[in-house]
Amino acid sequence: MLSLLSSSIYTCASLGNVVNIDQVDRIFLTTVESEREIEGVEVEIPKINQEQRNKLADFLNQYQVRLTMKEGWTSDYPSEQFTFRVVYKNGDTQIFTFEREVFVSTRIYQIVNAPLDYNWIQKFERELHSND
Fold first, then answer.
1. How many other CB atoms are found less than 10 A from the CB of residue 125?
2. How far apart are CA 10 and CA 57, in angstroms?
C-alpha cells in the first residue's frame, strides 16, 4: 500500500491544474520589486478577464509540477520570486509563491521542467497593472 501511495504522490500535473486556473475570478500578481511597494498596504484583488485568464492558463499549463514531501521552504532565487493572490469564483482565496524551480501553496511542488520564465511574469504583471 505504501508504494502505491508514494507513486501517486510523485505524479506530475500541470501547474494550471494545481492552481485550478479555470476557477480563478480575481488575481493580484506581484514580483519581488512590486511586493516591496505594497508592503503594509491593503490591496484590492482585481477581476481578470477571459483573455488574461487564457494567457495565464497557457503559461501555467506549459509547466509540470510534482508534489514533494518537503516541509518548509527556503528561497534559492529570491530575485526571481513572485506571488499570486487568487480569489476563486466560489469566494475561496489562496496565496501561491513561485520561484524558478519551486511552486509553494499549502504544499511544496518541484517544477519538473524548470525554470519558470520570469521575464514573461514581469511582462504579464505590467499588463495586469496597466488595466487598473
1. 17
2. 22
Residue 70 in 3-state DSSP?
coil
pTM of the model: 0.81
Cell of 27: 488575481
With contact defined as beta carbons under 8 Å apart, do 75 and 37 qualify? no
Q: Residues near 131 by Cβ (< 8 Å), separated by ≥ 6?
A: 46
What CA–CA distance (Å, rounded) separates 121 from 59? 9
Placement of cell 505504501 in the chain: 2
Each residue of 61-115: pLDDT tens digit? 999 999 998 788 888 888 889 999 999 999 999 999 999 999 999 899 999 999 9
